Request: fold
Amino acid sequence: MKLSVLESALKAEIKISLGLSNEQLKNFSVSPPPPHIRADLSLAWPIAAAKTLRKPPSKIAGEVKQALAGKFSAQVLPPGFVNIRLPDKVLIEAASGMVSDAGWFLDPRHCGETVNIEFVSANPTGPLHLASGRGAVLGDSLARIMRFLGGKVSEEFYVNNIGKQVELLGLSLKARFLGQNPPEDGYQGGYLKETAAALPADAAAWTDKQFSEFAVNEMLALHKADMKAFGVEFDRWFMESELHEAKGPEKALEELKKRGMTYEKEGARWLGTSSVMDSDDKDRVLVKSDGHNTYFLNDIAYHLNKLDRGFTKVVDIWGADHHGHAPRMDAAVSALGHDKNVFKIVIHQQVLLKRGAQLVKMSKRAGDFISLKELMDEVGADACRFFFAMRSPDTHLTFDVDLAKKKSNDNPVFYVQYVHARINSIFNNAAQKGVDPAGTFDAAKLVLNEEERLLLLKLMWFERVLETCIRDFSPHHLTAYLTELSALFHSFYDRHKVLNPGDPGTSAFRLFLLKGVKFAIAHGLGLLGVCAPEKM
Reply:
């Protein structure tokens, strides 16, 4: 039985027994109990429902225990927790379904969604840096998880190929070509020397615009190559120039005018959202008094374009330097008439690089930084992706290069990958000994030890972990889950022999159990874009 189905069954049982309404049960959910509690599920709903039901939490918990009597073993603990012990057969059925049922993880809530996730979207003014890598892992992992749960997802990279920064890039490249220093506010990085060396001899007669176009194309080719090497395949690279060719900003402005959301002041056109929305604290300029569009209007046009393409949810993943832009974009999407749940902005913090005990100082504008490609070349794409996924987006991430290079269990990604390789070795060993890895066992005769139960229970929670990643827009829950599952495997394997010729039933069950662990490790790593090696 799936955890979500089990939770619904518990809820229905309690609803009928206690004569409750759906509203009274709206906060009902199960969670893992604390490690010191000998139980499989914990229910804190009696505490949340005390005010609504006008009863002490302990009394509600007692009523819940009584409602479940005969089907589940339940224990009440102060101030009103209900801890539930599941029958072994429920855990075994969950592991079996997870491995054998292709539709096990499909969720009706996600199957009807069409999601656009835009991430990285780095200005094509230099190689991708570490923060871009973190954004790439965040966006691509979420897209993979959403697809796994049944959603249709399009991954998108927005390319700012026009504007002042692109002009400065062209002037910087031109200066390098002519053997001069770039403008003071230009791009100083040595990577432009390599780009300049690739210019044709007749570039001396080029216009500044041609230098800009060449530089953008070269940088974009590097970005595409880096993302491919990183395991990220974008469905679309959306050029800002496309937006302007299609008169996107003009269409967005007209739409906002029709909705009465703009006004003129001091010769400029403003978006008047501060008085009607909580997401922004002041009105913003859309068209300046000189007639030029602001970046804000262009960005609104891009989001209108995405919404007009029919996506039911639009997700933007931005770096910390865009934090101040988030409230105004929230306000703009609402001003276009869309529900706030349609649009989500995820801000991720910067990445610090650590070598030994020292933090590496970096500056992108000065060109003094470690590129994503350099880090991949040094520690591998697997370690990069796993480490980038290990922290919630709203926390700073310190990437320990020395740890990422270790070939030992101290390295988190090695620790998890090793479990997959170890289990694969066990199955190979079973085949050599003539043991059928799909052998049968009688679940009714099994007496599970605690390590076996803990592994089965952890497998049951895989479904909920993925849902939590989507809820929080962060794959860090999955890296934690895989690490915990790996620890449980090691604890089991250290204490119990898998292949026992004198007890074929137990051998068959333990191979079945390890098949479930291997499934969760392989799929979990795959959803993070990390390989699951057959041997190490």
Summary: Residues 504-527 form the longest helix (24 residues). The two ends are 34 Å apart (CA to CA). The CA atoms of residues 177 and 197 lie 7 Å apart.
